[in-house]
């Protein structure tokens, strides 16, 4: 069914108390939308309860912005579901020697699933966030409106395929967040707005300053919201003894060369905490959960030209029928590399890179692009 702006312009804005989500709400308000601000209470420990994007102080900042801009604000308690869907998976992945990205699961299961359902209960057809990404569609959603004193568009652009949606990188290459949104579906994209997709960070700051929003100069948080001071080790010690069980450090030939403090403290490509062996710096090149062992090697041993990805999805909803040339990113800040993907059956693909890539890490996402467009992605398993 067509989602026409004139039929329902109420939108739930996920507000973290930061400048991006606050500016996103301001943009939508100026475009004529009817925002409802929602801050999610996701904290599950006393240490993290007063920090990050879901803390009490964040909710207070979001509430101030909503009051100033003239729309309602609510805080929703998603603690239990966040723990089950995001934190428990985070711990399990580390127990299995993998390095997860909890922000991706939060987007998939919390912001663009549970929050979208809550939005509908509130009579809203859309959820908006401050992500730097764009959606292409020819469905009218107040597309193309401009904000005074900026060259920013609403993040919605026309395309030729009726009723289809495409996910694009954000215009600001340094802030692009499309990597953590690859799992979005046609159904979810039909109900999502990214007002900042066509803006740079500088333009977003300018909007907040011009409106004298209380968060205009607020610094960005670089930490995972549920881990205080980014101390993974402490968090995992408190939640999973299995993940921090000491074990063997092996060389590439299987010889014991030392002991590690727990596989959760290591990731592929890591040098810190390994030390030098044979007079040369060594790196983690493999992690074996079943043996509770890590394998170290030289830097050259980190390079591989293939990987297998599971839980693969494509934004279009259609799988490739044959080999597909893409640009593949194996980590958030990766520039991407040319590759060919082949469907292996189920939700599994094989990715063959044109050139070997350094430190392909199980648990991280591999995301497929065609130019600016996000095609899809999956979780690296080997």
UniProtKB/TrEMBL annotation:
It is an enzyme of class 2 (transferase). Pfam families: tRNA_Me_trans, tRNA_Me_trans_C, tRNA_Me_trans_M. The record marks 131, 364 as: Interaction with tRNA. InterPro entries: MnmA-like, MnmA-like_C, MnmA-like_central, MnmA-like_central_sf, Rossmann-like_a/b/a_fold. It catalyses: S-sulfanyl-L-cysteinyl-[protein] + uridine(34) in tRNA + AH2 + ATP = 2-thiouridine(34) in tRNA + L-cysteinyl-[protein] + A + AMP + diphosphate + H(+). It comes from the Bacteria. ATP binds at residues 14-21, 40, 130. Keywords: ATP-binding, Cytoplasm, Disulfide bond, Nucleotide-binding, RNA-binding, Transferase, tRNA processing, tRNA-binding. Residues 304-380 form the tRNA-specific 2-thiouridylase MnmA-like C-terminal domain. Residues 235-298 form the tRNA-specific 2-thiouridylase MnmA-like central domain. Residues 175-177, 331-332 are annotated as: Interaction with tRNA. Gene3D superfamilies: Adenine nucleotide alpha hydrolases-like domains, HUPs, Translation factors. The keyword Calcium does not apply. It is found in: Cytoplasm. GO terms for biological process: tRNA wobble position uridine thiolation. One of its GO terms (molecular function) is tRNA binding. GO terms for cellular component: cytoplasm. The active site is at 106 (nucleophile), 225 (cysteine persulfide intermediate). Its EC number is 2.8.1.13. HAMAP family: tRNA_thiouridyl_MnmA. Catalyzes the 2-thiolation of uridine at the wobble position (U34) of tRNA, leading to the formation of s(2)U34. Belongs to the MnmA/TRMU family. NCBIfam families: PRK00143.1. This is tRNA-specific 2-thiouridylase MnmA.
